[in-house]
Amino acid sequence: MPTIIPLLEKIRNNLAIRIGPRPNAAAETGAIKPRYRVAFLTGCIQDEIFRGVNADTVSVLARNGCEVIIPEHQKCCGALHAHVGERELARQLARTNIAAFEATGADFYIMNASGCGATLKEYAHLLHDDPKYAQRAATFVAKLRDFAEFLVEVGFEPPAGRIEARVTYQDACHMKHGQKVFVQPRVLLKSIPGLELVEMKDSDWCCGSAGIYNVVQPVMANEILSWKVENVSNTGASILVASNPGCAIQIGFGMRQSGRPLEILHIAEILERSYRLAEEEPA
Q1: Which residue, of 44, 141, 146, 183, is most buried by count of CB atoms within 10 Å of its CB?
Q2: pLDDT at 173 over 90
């Protein structure tokens, strides 16, 4: 434990926290008749530390014809509980979330944090021997989509605001290897005018965050992080796009520690930035 406390202090002192008001789904749906009714999982870390990501997620969904519902009784997805072997607690959380999302009557269930998404998509396996919830879990999983996955699947309005920047993309482990989602984020990024997408070496290698790995195994996590920092730096990018809060925290920490800070955004944030820039341009 003595090696963990200094790391936690470093994370706290170096974390660029982006906290804003929680998104108001009803206010963000807009006047356009919605194409889809979607229920949005706000997450734990995402909601507390990266609340602006959630607000931009809701805004982008609304811009693309979605009525966005935020289930009132949603809970933690159960990822960390499942990771440390607390499977029964994870099952309890899964049952609560399934019931909360069913109550919305939504066409799709959307999440924007890849770690949460990978766990949510395992609910059918987690509850496969539960006679009351097995089928409900399978139906729940069938409606689940990552934010980027959903937009590319149903079709999206390409943003028109120019972002003149070199951008690289971090393939979160839970996104690429867990959910098999890696083409869709690149489709969205390439749709932004002016943006130059530069692939980093080993973009799908772990950054060292890995749930709580960087807390319980800080020495090895920092070694892994050092490889990622070099690969990010070698792209010459001024913006890194990451789909998972753990990656954003870990890589941001590593880049600042190395004296090479850069802007780290979620894909919803950079899309919303482009949409807003287009609105600000003179007619």
Answers
A1: 146
A2: no
- How far is 4 from 9, CA to CA, in rounded Å? 9
> For the domain with range 158-280, which CATH number is right: 1.10.357, 3.40.50, 2.30.29, 3.30.750?
3.40.50
Contacts of 257 (CB under 8 A, 6+ apart): 10, 14
All residues at 6 or more sequence positions from 69 whose CB lies less than 8 Å from its CB, including other chains: 25, 37, 38, 39, 40, 104, 106
Task: Report d(CA 223, CA 145) in Å as an integer.
Answer: 33
Q: Taking a C-beta distance cutoff of 8 angstroms, is the pair 70, 39 a contact?
A: yes
Q: What is the pLDDT of residue 1?
A: 34
List residues bridging with 263 in a β-sheet.
Answer: 239
Residue 58: Cβ within 10 Å count? 27
Per CATH, the number for 17-153 is: 1.20.1050
Name the DSSP letter for residue 44: S
Query: Is the pTM above the cut of 0.85?
Result: yes
Q: Is the pLDDT of residue 80 over 90?
A: no
Q: Give the angle 112-256-168 at the CA atoms, nearest 5°.
A: 50
